[in-house]
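We emphasize that the prediction below concerns an isolated chain of 171 residues; any contacts that depend on oligomerization or on bound cofactors are therefore not represented. The input was used exactly as deposited, without trimming of termini.
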Amino acid sequence: MQPANAKSNPIPLTQRQAAFNRAKSLNNGISISWLEQTWNKDILSIKPINNTDFELIKRLGFKSVRLPVAFAYFETNKITVEKVFTHIDEVLEQCNTYGLKLIIDYHYGNLNDTNYLTETPKIINQWLKLTKRYIRESPEKVFFELYNEPPHMNPKVWKDAAYNIVTSLEK
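Result of the prediction step, given as a token string:
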């Protein structure tokens, strides 16, 4: 199957500059390994991160926390997104308490050259749930990482998938 041509709709310079400034504001950050641990079947029943950890993160001078989340894994294992959101909410609350920015990262997805037509709608669906959940959060404090380390795939296929994910959230 031949991949569709990727769409392109350049963002005006002022919007790009604003996006760059927001990204720059993340400054130095740290990833919190927890919700991407697909090898740990009990990951949602433990809370490995506590106030002391956030105090240390703040004291060490970090400005942002990146939270990788294995959404596809949880969905495959019939774990409700609401249960996952509860844990994200806890991290968000701590970030707000300690003045840290939060990056929610879509981690360990299944997208590739052969399944992008079926996987892209799943990713869009997940992002629609995420954006609906966190729409009221400040865009200066909560960030979204579209897809962690896209796989080695046809760049046109990836660009098309990414474009469709992003533009579906703008509607």
